[in-house]
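User: Structure tokens for both sequences below?

Assistant:
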Amino acid sequence: MANEFFIDEHTSALTKLVNEVVNDPTTYLGSKYLPSVALPVSRVRTEVIEATGGLTLEHAMGTDPKHIQSFGSRVQEFAPPAYKEVMHWDEKKILHLRELGQNDPSKRGIRQYIDKAIDQLNRRLEARIELLRWRAIFDGGFTYMGKTFSYGIPAANRVAPLGALWSLDGINPNNSANPIADIRYWVTGGSAKFRKYKIKKLVMSPNTSRWILENSNTKQYISSIGAQAAIKEWGIDALMSYLLPGGPVIEVYNSWYQTESLVDNGQGTGGKKIQVSDAIYFINDGEIFFEATLPDGDIIGEFQQTLHLASGTVDSPGYGKFLVVEENIAPGTKGGPQNPFIDICSGVNGGVNLQRAFDVLTAKVIA
């Protein structure tokens, strides 16, 4: 392994330690709409007071008023899935790993590797949580152990363009579409399902916003009303604030994750190395989320993290996200001096509880 202690008979030196670009959980937006909440329970229940409407009935004086139905309520129960993984360090790695970026082979590196492994596992877990949030919003459910679970978002809560799709190939804008007309229709009363909501924001990927800006109908509309002088820069926020003054803003969300696969390390030993995919946006191109004002400042749900045994005791389990370093080196541990090892275990027993699935509003503008 290239990171083990080495003996080099030639004159050489490590001059720099280079970290490749990785995902940054501090940029994740999904926690605004589905924040992580740790709960000391295994199942969560939510009681929903169902919507009511109607108009007061006509009444003939001298007669008894007609009775109407009182509001209803229902209870939703949520049992979360589980996510867990372990990184294993055997005796050879514990003894032989040198400190990264150091020429001195006497600098032991296992503690540095553990620190970086903790960061790696935490980023993987936060990326899983963020992806679950956005897939719940746009897919209306999730897949776990080969089974698909639905939150029951009403089909009418997802709108589509009035005319053509915004892109036909997922790369270039479709100039037969009219994104500005679509947005105005959705948020100013054209969509019957959206009329009772105050839409505050549209959240989309960079490519989706680009299809708006580069669409010939958008450019022609701006030119026809002589708006070039008023719009100081060609950005999505400036454009929409001029076309829909006082209307919702557009937030371009560009946080991403990468998938991994194991491939041959090319050293002829049969060893493997990690190969990562290109960056994948958490919000797929062509998806739009409408942030709406909800009663009492409520949000659409939570990512609920429940009980686990990675910490605490069987009588008082821990709860929430967990990341545990287990050193099995000392006598009496699972490995002990005979077969020492270190395990780093991370995970969460939890998932998205979409408590207000009936208020999740989205659009799909490509096939």
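Moving on to the next sequence.
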Amino acid sequence: MKLWKKLVFGAVLLIGLCLFTTTTVAYAEQAPIRDTEVSDQTKTYNLDSYGSQMVSEEGWASFFNIDTGQWINSGANIFFEFNKISFSVFRKGIELFGEASVLQDNISTFTSYSKNLFDTLYGKFGLTIIVCMAVYIFYLYFAKSPQRAMKQFVAFMMVIVFAFGWNAKGKDLVKGFNTISNEVQVALLQSTANNQGNTKVDATVLVQNTLFDLAVKEPYYLMNYGKTTKINTPENPKKTSEFLYPGKTTKEKLEKVQDNVDEAAETNEYLQPSKAGWKLAVGFLSPIMTISIGFPLLAIQFLNFMVELIALVVSGFIGLSAFISLIPKFQNAVWKMMQFLLGAFGIRVLLGLAFLMLV
């Protein structure tokens, strides 16, 4: 990278630092604007109520057919129970990584360490370095060229200004980068959902809801309706929830669900024993699909967590790299570290794009 390009990058970074220091705190104090609260869909109905339903047979018919439709349907529900267990494991992992505010909770500690490191080194060796730099600039001016001396002087002053600016507002700068990258990622996640939100928890819930839709709701719809869309009708706008119930499982709720199944079976062929094979196939494939979808989503949340850890570690060494950059031979060290820091937050945006491609 040519020297003028490095100077331009440093100037842009310094301008960004000034803008963040004047706007980040005020922005953080504002209440976020929401159109609709993001809700966890898994809490709407009892997860145990999601399963393969089949019309009940009464009397001698139930006795003679106990080894056919009902048994096959029980097998479908066994596979689907394993599917729901897999979903719950992935959901918990996504929640743990997604709601871990490691950067927000610890950024003050790491930026304070960075500041103390720079202040200590600058206090002991700063005057010596300034004197040596002055001699070096005079040497460049008379022995090389005035332009080269001026470039060296500007580069040195930019490092000084940035170092003291970082010590004063480094915490707000990192939080600002984190907020922007998080909001961009949430905006990408929102493009696949109807809910709105602009906090990290909202992003986690959006990922959980997406996994719930693909891993639980769609197989449930396939087993009981034979399709995943256009199930509700103007006459029955809540048809997709006719066999579901909130709260704890009770005998009364199970009996009511079975009554609803028996009634709906008159017009829904997928509740008949003749569709037992279809139900078994869907139930068998559902945990395979959940695992294939759950691992990438969990990996995205884990990488989000790692981005924050990387940003913390880099923030802790910005002060050291700024001091090293006072030495002409290593004058680009602090800018390299800032590029690395910005790149870490840029990864979060790429993870949002990866989520779009996945779902």
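User: Anything stand out in the second?

Assistant: Confidence is low (pLDDT under 50) at residues 6-15, 17-36, 59-65.
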